TrEMBL record:
Class in the EC hierarchy, top level: hydrolase
A GO biological-process term: inositol metabolic process
Catalysed transformations (reactions): a myo-inositol phosphate + H2O = myo-inositol + phosphate
Gene3D superfamilies: 3.40.190.80, Fructose-1,6-Bisphosphatase, subunit A, domain 1
Molecular function, one GO term: metal ion binding
Binding, Mg(2+): 71, 92, 94-95, 221
Name of the molecule in the record: Inositol-1-monophosphatase
Family the entry assigns: Belongs to the inositol monophosphatase superfamily.
Superkingdom of origin organism: Eukaryota
Entries under InterPro entries matching the protein: IMPase, Inositol_monoPase_Li-sen, Inositol_monophosphatase-like, Inositol_monophosphatase_CS
CDD domains for the chain: IMPase
Pathway: Polyol metabolism; myo-inositol biosynthesis; myo-inositol from D-glucose 6-phosphate: step 2/2
Database matches in Pfam families: Inositol_P
Record lineage: Eukaryota, Metazoa, Ecdysozoa, Arthropoda, Hexapoda
Length: 300
């Protein structure tokens, strides 16, 4: 797509997402039956499904060749989700579904487009708080049409990190999670956990947080937020390599700048090295757990 076509595509999908916002608002009043997927906190409603169908159906109508990697479609399909060079929409119809069913307004619709495996368009929309984040590669990040920038900070101490900590319910993740929390406490890093990783990323982009950390999330939780942070002047790096993050394996540190991202990475590397010595990394503990006949679905 050339820049004119991208602009047209941006506007077309923006309108679709605004329409989906009305459906989300309707469901927020009464979401109907709450169903579960992989585990009891992995919930889904007809509103998740409806919004995803409208987005995919609407985009397909105008762009029949485009591909999709979307949360609810993935939940039903047995096929592995593969990102190719073709234009691909990465969609989470409602990020923060547990908030949604509990009537907490910390939710958003997350939609990103990749071309040649590169993020080019991103939207995060919370119709309940009227926050519409958007970005196009090279053209900046916006909140309700106003340009946004990350909040600069030179030091970890005193900064605020957003992260999801409920993976600590898995016994094999718990020692690592507790060590991370200790690290934050010791360094006076304030912790926020909103229950919507995508929204947390939007908030980093607008300067609410200076750091964001996530592991074990899905591509649709992170893709849109990543482009919005990058376009707001921040960084998004792979937690292990410190290089550009992998869209399909979003284990990331996002931050206002590379200095504090790398500082956090170094501290986390230290935690992992210590856990390795003690035989308590998530990987080692997971293997032991499975060897002992554990079932991942029984854990929460
Ligand atoms: Mg979702």
């Amino acid at each position: 797509m050339n820049s004119e076509e991208l602009k047209e595509c941006f506007e077309y999908v923006k309108d679709l997402i605004l329409k989906c916002g009305e459906i989300l608002k309707e469901g927020f009043k009464d979401c109907g039956e709450v169903m579960t997927k992989a585990n009891p906190s992995d919930v889904v409603t007809i509103y998740d499904q409806k919004i995803e169908e409208i987005l995919i159906g609407g985009i397909r109508k105008k762009y029949p060749d485009h591909k999709f990697i979307a949360e609810e479609q993935a939940a039903k399909s047995k096929e592995a989700q593969v990102l190719t060079s073709l234009p691909t929409w990465i969609i989470d119809p409602i990020d923060g579904s547990l908030n949604f069913v509990a009537k907490s307004p910390l939710v958003c619709i997350s939609v990103a487009l990749t071309i040649n495996e590169d993020l080019v368009i991103a939207f995060l929309y919370n119709p309940l708080t009227n926050e519409f984040f958007s970005a196009q590669k090279g053209l900046g990040a916006f909140l309700n049409g106003n340009k946004i920038k990350v909040r600069e900070t030179e030091v970890l101490q005193g900064s605020t990190i957003a992260t999801e900590i409920n993976f600590g319910t898995f016994p094999f993740v718990r020692p690592q999670m507790m060590a991370k929390l200790n690290l934050f406490f010791e360094n006076h890093i304030r912790i926020r956990t909103l229950g919507s990783a995508a929204l947390e990323m939007g908030y980093l982009a607008k300067g609410t947080f200076q750091l964001f950390l996530c592991e074990r999330l899905k591509p649709w939780d992170v893709a849109a937020g990543a482009l919005i942070i990058l376009e707001a002047g921040g960084v998004v790096i792979d937690i292990k390599t410190g290089e550009d993050y992998k869209i399909m394996q979003p284990n990331i540190i996002a931050a206002s700048n590379m200095k504090i991202a790398l500082e956090l990475k170094k501290a986390l590397d230290g935690i992992d090295a210590k856990l390795e010595e003690e035989g308590k990394t998530p990987k080692i503990l997971y293997e032991k757990f499975i060897a002992a006949g554990g079932n991942i679905k029984d854990l929460r």
